[in-house]
Amino acid sequence: MAEPTGNVRAAPAPARRDPWLIVAAVVAIVFGLATIRAGGRVVFGVPDAVVAAGNYVPFVLWFTFVAGFFYVLAGVGFWLRRRWAFALAVAIAAATVAVFAAFGIHVATGGAWEARTMAAMTLRSVVWIVLAFVAARRIPR
Question: What is this structure's pTM?
Answer without folding.
Answer: 0.88
